[in-house]
Design goal:
alpha/beta; 15 helices; galactoside 2-alpha-L-fucosyltransferase activity; 12 strands; 481 residues; 34% helix; binds guanosine-5'-diphosphate; 6-stranded mixed sheet
Length: 481
């Protein structure tokens, strides 16, 4: 079914979440169908214009996918430097940086950029990223082939890389760059990108980059909010996302369906520990610095947030040994995710050692405790992906400030989480947590260079359009509302 391109995208026109499913899907990706059974009926909808855009994208991807005639021609051009006839295939290649949460957020942003600029989106996955997700596009592949000619440059791409757009702009003007008419360009849009790198987000630079067949993006950021500041993208973005709070939710549901292996891990845990509870509570505990956030400070904070302030969980009555059984007993399942097991142990013991004040039964579960972040480890990434999904299946979510792991969970779940305020000076903050006003992830390191309303350095990019504002947990970051 196709939907009218003319659709205004107003709320009444919005389509249900399951509209993503392809009509002729063979069912090879179980989560694509089965997740509907696990998620509450999503109140988050898809605009018909977005769905149409994605269906067009899928056709375009199929025409230009790896090893198609068009792809082979663009590769020949790239190798020889000689362009014959235009193939109609331009690409964005995404390459990984940092942890899985960062990767998922930057992939979603790079994909959105590809859709808006009519490019084909390919990802460079090493062994640690294989088989986490289903293939998102029907009857084709999003994987960059291993023999892609520029692949050996990807590892070198960092802030100092001489061939990045930012560094080339430092030594050349756009005009001389245009004369060079390059066939590929490296874009460095990570946390330490500088004002030259982020010229990418300026309209005149987009006009130039539009002519380059291959763009290679390395980023660990959710840079989507800055795409909403590029004037020429406004008309499309407004129709794709009449509601700016569900941009990542929409993109994530489309792009990141758990592979069958991940789905097995998600559903077995869910059925064993979460399914039968009346309410599910997700608690994501990310400690960036154990010295600044020692165990007792964070533990006090979690209990202050969940029990005292927000009454998400019942308190315990240490004066009673047992409470009389009640027929309308509520049961709550808490899924804790953390690199450490000590938080889980403490909360589990709290509800074991004493009854709750209202008779509520609280079960506490933790899928894994990996100790430290590993790099290049497939099963480690798999566990992280599974846990992000388990958090997203909860009714209430409590997340840690600054964590992209938490952002992915809230976006997948369509949830506005309670965010644990970052402790300072080893003290439990008061209040302990606050509700996010939007479920969108935060772009931690946005540009400070303003080129939408006129060139200005050190500008406040959170004050330019109403829907791009500062983040609740990271006040120099930008977020969609
Ligand atoms: P961020 O650092 O919190 O923004 O999140 P990232 O996902 O980008 O990087 C942290 C990485 O550390 C994750 O991808 C995991 O590999 C690991 N990690 C951190 N917290 C957890 C957790 O609660 N569970 C699991 N399984 N891994 C975690």
């Amino acid at each position: 079914k196709t939907y009218s391109i003319e659709s205004t995208g107003v709320a009444e026109d919005m389509l249900p979440g399951e509209s993503w499913i392809w009509e002729k899907d063979t069912g090879s990706c179980l989560s694509r169908f089965q997740s509907l059974l696990y998620r509450k009926i999503s109140h988050q909808k898809i605009s018909p214009y977005l769905l149409n855009k994605i269906r067009d994208y899928e056709e375009h991807h199929k025409r230009c996918a790896p090893y198609t005639e068009m792809y082979n021609r663009t590769i020949k051009e790239l190798e020889s430097g000689i362009v014959s006839e235009p193939t109609g295939c331009h690409y964005v290649v995404w390459t990984a940086l940092e942890g899985l949460g960062n990767r998922i957020l930057s992939m979603a942003s790079a994909f959105l950029y590809a859709v808006i600029t009519d490019r084909v989106f390919l990802v460079e996955f090493e062994a640690d990223m294989i088989d986490l997700f289903c293939e998102p596009f029907p009857n084709t592949s999003w994987l960059l082939p291993a023999d892609f000619p520029l692949k050996n440059q990807f590892k070198l791409l960092d802030q100092m890389f001489p061939h990045s757009y930012g560094n080339m702009m430092k030594t050349n003007t756009i005009k001389t760059m245009m004369e060079l008419s390059p066939l590929s360009m490296y874009l460095y849009l990570a946390h330490d990108a500088d004002d030259h790198d982020t010229l990418f987000f300026c309209q005149e630079h987009q006009a130039f980059l539009g002519n380059i067949p291959w763009l290679i993006i390395k980023s660990d950021q959710y840079f989507t909010p800055s795409l909403f500041l590029i004037p020429s993208f406004d008309p499309k973005l407004n129709k794709m996302f009449p509601n700016k709070e569900i941009v990542f939710h929409n993109l994530a549901h489309y792009l990141f369906q758990p592979s069958n292996r991940a789905w097995g891990l998600i559903t077995r845990f869910y059925e064993s520990y979460l399914a039968k509870a009346d309410k599910r509570v997700g608690l994501q505990i990310r400690i960036f610095d154990r010295k600044v956030s020692p165990f007792h400070v964070v533990m006090d904070q979690i209990l202050a947030c969940t029990i005292k302030e927000k009454k998400i969980l019942a308190g315990v009555n240490t004066h009673e040994l047992v409470v009389p059984p009640s027929i309308n007993l509520t049961t709550k399942a808490v899924v804790v995710t953390s690199l450490y097991s000590e938080y889980y142990e403490h909360i589990k013991n709290l509800y074991w050692m004493a009854p709750t004040v209202n008779g509520e039964v609280v079960g506490v579960y933790q899928p894994s405790h990996e100790g430290i972040q590993h790099f290049g480890d497939h099963m480690h990434n798999m566990k992280a992906w599974v846990e992000m999904n388990l958090l997203s299946l909860c009714d209430e979510l409590i997340t840690s400030s600054w964590s992209t792991f938490g952002y992915v969970s809230q976006g997948l779940g369509g949830l506005r989480p309670w965010i644990l305020v970052k402790p300072e000076n080893r003290m439990t903050p008061h209040p302990a947590c606050g509700r996010a006003e939007s479920m969108e992830p935060c772009y931690h390191s946005p540009p400070s260079y303003e080129c939408r309303t006129g060139p200005k350095v050190n500008a406040d990019l959170g004050a330019i359009v109403p829907h791009v504002n500062h983040c609740e947990d990271f006040n120099t970051g930008l977020k969609l509302f």
